[in-house]
Amino acid sequence: MTKPSPAARERIVAGAADMISRRGLNATSIREMAKHARAPLGSTYHYFPEGKQQLATEAVRYTGEWVARRLRKELEAGPASGLRAFLGLWRKIVVDSDFRAGCPVLAVSIEEPPTDETPAALVAAADVFDAWESLLADSLCEHGAEREQAAQLATLVVAAVEGTVAMCRAKRSTQPLDRTAEQLQALVLAAIKG
Questions:
Q1: Does any domain span residue 69?
Q2: In which band, very low, low, confident or very high, does the pLDDT at 5 lie, cut at 50, 70 and 90?
Q3: Is the pLDDT of residue 1 over 50?
Q4: What range does the domain containing 90 cover?
Q5: The pTM is what?
Q6: What is the DSSP letter of 70?
Q7: DSSP states of 11-47 as a string?
Q8: Cβ–Cβ under 8 Å, residues 129 and 158
């Protein structure tokens, strides 16, 4: 018997995140996620014995941390740099996928849960949005913005970028992202100068 591979598990999670970003959670089966990740279905159930919701939760967390790592790095140069990186990351995703992929965190957030209970993937999505907002708000505060203004602006940035990514997919254009970027940059610069 072979030893489980962390790389194989991560490949399945990354593949699931990509599928969810393209088709949404409800339209994607665990079989399709495994196939997309080029993983045997049995391995998928081995790593995720609770099934699709467990895999979706991990995919959301994976995406959240993947984005947060890039954001943290760019925020070292200040909130304007962090914002440019955040916008650039999503621009790359929509353009490189020919406007077929968006954000799996948003995809999980907007779909109706299968039961009356709050699924773990939805809780993970809320945590991811909170983490991104906190990173942005902390950077804004470190560069002179007042705490409440920083929190509000961070929420606006995350909400605007997530919504704009969806608009880019629908319009098959980066124009919404370009317009949003310009306005968000102005708001960030005003907050740290004020």
A1: yes
A2: low
A3: no
A4: 60-192
A5: 0.92
A6: H
A7: HHHHHHHHHHHHH-STT--HHHHHHHTT--HHHHHHH
A8: yes
